[in-house]
Amino acid sequence: MPAIQLSRLRDVLGQLFSLIDRPEQFHRALADFLEQQADHAYRAGENIPTRPRTPAYHIPPLVIRQLELEFTDACKRQPDALFPIADHLWQDPHLELRHLAAHILGQMPSSHLQGVVDRLRTWALTCDDRSALNPLLERATVSLRRDSPLEMVALLEGWLQGTDTLHLRIGLRVIEWLVQDSQFENLPALFRLLGPLVKKPTTPIFNNLARALQAVARRSGGETTFFLRQMLASSSNPSTARLARQVLPELSESQQQTLRASLRNQNPL
What we know:
Protein name: DNA alkylation repair protein
InterPro entries: ARM-type_fold, DNA_alkylation
Low-confidence stretches: 43-52
Organism: Anaerolinea thermolimosa
Pfam families: DNA_alkylation
Number of strands: 0
Helix content: over 70%
Order of helices and strands: HHHHHHHHHHHHHHHH
Strand content: under 5%
């Protein structure tokens, strides 16, 4: 991997971003550049993986950070040109290019959020690679969470108000990211969406639901305790009680005592 100075890097990226109106050429030029910067030794080794790994260039953090800065600036200046580039990068199997595609979506101005939502719906459902899906759900929702929290909730509703397991898992994963964002304050909307799932939790999504509730509890233990007490009072489903017990370690001592009392009082089947 050849070292590259910041001044030289900026010159190279300036040439690259001159292709911003030609997405296919941009994609090829960016891939060629990353290949030149790749740490091939990182991928070499004696151990053979038991299953195929997502291809990655293993680029120095300085290069990735500068690319992200360039994309952030380009999204402000030419957002329409960035959507086709994001589409091309997302179709590339390399992890860094998919991460950059997600970064582009997350930096779009509020005037272009519909394009972000459309791609989130499509990309999330067609992504079977967790190493790409998690950054997609975190990075690509940045502008949506910041500029249009109601649209973010509407997107969540589309995933969580059905019965499709993949949709539900995606929605629950998004909740984990949402509650880590201190600027997102619409917790009542999350509890409203979680309610039907907590009352009748199904096996395929039980662990996902537990992780989402634990994340919400870390954000607001008091509200989560109140929510779970309501669920226990209106449901005799033993899986609901199991979920509540999974959340207990995330609560304060007094909140744990309150929730344990509700667990003891839960109506039997």
